[in-house]
Amino acid sequence: MGSQMMAPLARTPEDWASLAPELGGRSFHGKQIFRWLHARGVLDASRMTDLPGSMREALGKMGIAPEAEILTVRRSSDDTRKMLLRVAGGFTIETVLIPGVVRGKIGHPSPVEQDADASAAAEDDDDDATAQPDVVRVTQCVSTQVGCAMGCVFCASGVAGWKRNLGPDEIALQVILGRAQLDPHEQLRNVVYMGMGEPLHNYEATAQSLRLLTHPDGIGLSSRRVTVSTSGLIPEIERLGKDFDGHIGLAISLHAADDETRSRLMPINKKYPLAKLMDALRAYPLPKRRRITIEYTLVAGKNDTVDEARKLVRLLRGLPVKVNLIPMNPIEASSLGPTSSGGVLSFQKILCDAGYSCFIRRRRGDDVSAACGQLALLGEKPKVRVNRT
Ligand code: SAH
Ligand code: SF4
Asked: Which of 253, 332, 360 to mutate to test the pocket of ligand 1 (most atoms within 8 A of CB)?
C-alpha cells in the first residue's frame, strides 16, 4: 500500500519520511511526526511544536486521528479498566487495562496468583533488573476485529459473528488512548491481542500494528512483551513467525486435546486440526528460553475431566509451553459454564505433576464485563451472571 493511501496513524516513521516533502517538510520530520503521535500520544497537529507551521497546517487538513471516540471508561473494583470506543461505522470496540499484581508483598506467590492475569502470557522470562518497585505494571488487552468469524461456542464475540476488521491505526489507537488513562504510578508493560476478534484473521493490520507498537521511536514495547493469541490459523502462525523472527509472543487457544472435542468447541479445528497445529507450533522460531502460552478454557462437562488433562499432557509433550487454565466466564448467549474450582485444581495438578508450568488465570474485571470472552458488540451491555468458581 502506498503511504498516501495508508491511514495516518498506521504509518511508520519511514512512511512519514517519504511523505514529508508532500507536506512541505523534510524527511527528518517523519520521525518527529511519528513520535508526537505514538510516543507522546498527541493527535492534534497544531500541538506538534517542533514542526514548521506549514506542515502542521497540512497535517491538520489531512486529519490524523482515526474516526473514534471514547464512550466510557469503567473501573472495576480490582482496578481493571474497560474502555469502550466508538469507531467508524458506528461500531463499538473494547480494550481492557489490567494492572499487575504488586510483587514482593506476599512472599512467594502461589501458582494462581503468579499467573493472575493476561500479562502472564507476556512476561515469561521477566528479567528486568531496572524495574522500579513502586511502579505497577499494566497489561493492555486489545481488539483486532468487531466481532469474530471463528464461532467458538463459549465466546461472546464468536457467537455474535464478524462485523468488520479493525485497521492498524485503530489497534494502535487503543494503546495510545489506553496509556493516557494510566495513573502516575502505573506503566504500560505488556500488550496482549486477546480482545475481540481473531488477530490472525486480520493478519496485515495485526502485523502493521505490531510494527507500530514495537517501533523504538513510538511506544517502544519490547516485542517479547507483546503476545498475539490465536485460535490456531496455521498459515498465519507461520507468517507471524517469519515476519517477526519468532520474537512476538504466541498464545494458542487450545481448549481441547482431541479433534472431536475441539471441533465441537471451536469450528476452526475442522480446517486446522490438532496434529497440524502442533507441527506449526514446533516450527515456530521461538527464541531460546521463551515458551508458547497454551490457553485452555475449562467448560463444565465439555473438556475438563482428568482424562482430558492427561490427553493434554501427551499432546504437549516436547513443546516449550506453559499452560493457562481459564475457568469459562459465563456469557449471555450460552448456557455453558465454568468448571468447579475443585475440578480446575484437579486438572491443574495433572499438568503440574507432569512437569508443566500450569497456572489458573484469575478473573479480572468481571464486574465491568471485561473478562475473557465477555467483550460486547455494538455497546450492548452483557449481563454477567455471578457464578464465581
Ligand atoms: N481470538 C483469539 C484472541 C481473543 S480471545 C483467540 O481465541 O485466541 C482470548 C482468550 O479468551 C482465548 O483463549 C479465548 O478462547 C478465551 N475465551 C473466549 N471466551 C471465553 C469465555 N467465555 N471464558 C473464558 N475464556 C474465554
Ligand atoms: Fe474468535 Fe477467539 Fe472468540 Fe474464538 S475465542 S470466537 S477465535 S475471539
From this structure: 253
Is CATH 3.20.20.70 the right assignment for the domain spanning 97-368?
Answer: yes
Q: Which residues contact 15 (CB under 8 A, 6 or more apart)?
A: 3, 6, 30
Ligand 2 pocket, mutate which of 150, 165, 206 (most atoms under 8 A from CB): 150
What are the residue ranges of CATH 1.10.150.530 in the chain? Answer: 8-62
The answer to whether the beta carbons of residues 298 and 339 sit under 8 Å apart is yes
- Ligand 2 atom 4: residue of nearest CA: 152
CATH code of domain 8-62: 1.10.150.530
Distance 168 CA to ligand 1 centre (A): 21
> Among all ligands shown, which has an atom nearest to the Cα of 146?
2
Average pLDDT per 10 consecutive residues for the chain, totaling 389 residues: 75 97 96 98 96 96 93 92 95 94 45 43 51 86 97 93 97 97 96 97 98 97 97 98 98 98 98 98 97 98 98 97 96 93 97 97 71 55 35
Q: Which of 94, 198, 295, 308 is catalytic?
A: 94
The CATH 3.20.20.70 domain(s) of the chain lie at 97-368
User: What is the residue with the minimal CA distance to atom 18 of ligand 1?
Assistant: 373
Closest Cα partner for 93 from 366, 383, 378? 378
Q: Are strands 162-165 and 145-147 parallel, antiparallel or unpaired?
A: antiparallel
Kindly state if the Cβ of 231 falls inside 6 Å of ligand 1. Answer: yes
User: What is the spatial distance between Cα 245 and Cα 132, in angstroms, rounded to a whole number?
Assistant: 30
Say how far apart CA 154 and CA 369 lie, in whole Å: 15
**Closest ligand 1 atom number to CA of residue 155:** 19
Cell of 115: 499467573
> Looking up cell 478473573, which residue turns up?
363
Q: Which residues contact 386 (CB under 8 A, 6 or more apart)?
A: none
pLDDT value of position 102 = 62
Q: Which ligand is nearest to the CA of 296?
A: 1
